[in-house]
Amino acid sequence: MMDAWRVLLVDDHPLTRHGLRTVIELIPGVTVIGETESGADAVRLAKQAEANLVFMDLNLPETSGIEATRMLRAALPETLVVAMTMRQEEATIRQAIDAGVSGYLLKSASLNEIRSALESLTPGGMYLSPAIAGVLVRSGSNGVVRGSNGEVYEHVSPREREVLTLLARGLSARHIAKELHISERTVNTHVTHVYRKLAVNNRVEAINAARRLGLVEPVA
């Protein structure tokens, strides 16, 4: 978790913004530094106020929350975005994840759930409320991977799982490239993506996380 969250609230309903501000300012280390009802203004205000976290409604007039998220992530890649919405359709969840949200919460979320989300947010990681994770599981989609402690990660593709399996066998990038008939550069790209998706920093951490999540076979 960040030492301190500087939060921008983006929602076109003043009462919703007021309620969310009241709740999240009860959490230590959280300061709301701005509000707006406009997705188009979100980037400017986040930059101006040096926000490192944005709570984003997805149903905004003119510029949607999903489009505003794309703009924010492009302009301020270090600033994380959490979708705060009532939308539970798989297509909307997918669009928000693709746009770059680091979390997806329902507006009915409790203080404890919001606190848990803030404590677990990391660049490249993902927090989904249990209800949203359930939507993806029921859809039969492989869009996320859930850890044993409830943490949720971005989807690890079949090719990335192959690379992880070979990493776990101790193969170098050069040997993995030969095994999979791809370039070494492509292998390194897959490894970089895996590190980001599993929120790890090196090969050992990636292998341990992959085994814990069931992405590769555990050590016999």
Walk me through the structure.
The chain is α/β, with parallel strands linked by helices and 220 residues long. The chain is 48% helix and 16% strand. The strands form two sheets. Strands 2-1-3-4-5-6 form a six-stranded parallel beta sheet, sandwiched between helices. Strand 3 (53-56), helix 3 and strand 4 (80-85) form a beta-alpha-beta unit. The mean pLDDT is 85.
Topology readout:
Layout: E1 5-10, H1 14-24, E2 30-36, H2 39-49, E3 53-56, H3 65-75, E4 80-85, H4 90-99, E5 103-106, H5 111-120, E6 127-128, H6 130-138, E7 144-146, E8 152-154, H7 158-168, H8 173-180, H9 184-198, H10 203-212
Largest sheet: 6 strands, parallel
How much of the sequence is in beta strands?
15-25%
Q: Give the overall shape, derived from the CA principal axes.
A: elongated
- Arithmetic mean pLDDT: 85
- Write out the strand line-up for the largest beta sheet, numbering strands in chain order: 2-1-3-4-5-6
Oligomer: single chain
Counting helices, strands and paired strands, the structural category is alpha/beta
Contiguous uncertain segments of 5+ residues: none
Taking all Cα atoms into account, the compactness measure Rg is 19 Å
End-to-end CA span: 34 Å
Q: What's the order of the H and E elements?
A: EHEHEHEHEHEHEEHHHH
Q: How much helicity do the residues have?
A: 40-55%
Number of helical stretches of at least 4 residues: 10
Number of strands: 8
